[in-house]
């Protein structure tokens, strides 16, 4: 069992950040620690306790690079259309660019996917993704507790079919999130700035 960081629940929830530039690309990540974190993630809720999620863990350098190349291609398109409004936006853009440039060097890539039976449902898809994304966030929290970091990414979905072909993912399973996973350079993450609660809180109606 991996030793856990001394974080209480509120600290864990408020200091689990999207980590990009502070991912340690040189330190190997043991598959066992990823398995430990996934065992925690499997306790997350899913609709009707269906547990139709799948977790594709990539450690092979050649396979990771193929996925990383498609991610970088998608990021280039995305980045070209994003305004650089302020210092915060520019810092995030720099961090995101770094991840796109180094994705193939990250020790482990984890793709969270879910069985859909075929085509995605029309209309509101909250029921489907609500059975995957809580597990992916639990995985992020479990990794943080073990001194590892990740960054919630979905840009690879622009090339979902191509990635599915590379990885042999069947057409009945759809990808929902890609998490690059590595030990972090330091563990001293802090809560981020957020909008005031009263600006977004609605009680008994809008």
UniProtKB/TrEMBL annotation:
InterPro entries: Nitroreductase, Nitroreductase-like. Residues 15-181 form the Nitroreductase domain. Pfam families: Nitroreductase (PF00881). Keywords: Oxidoreductase. The keyword Oxidoreductase applies. It comes from the Bacteria. Belongs to the nitroreductase family. This is Nitroreductase family protein.
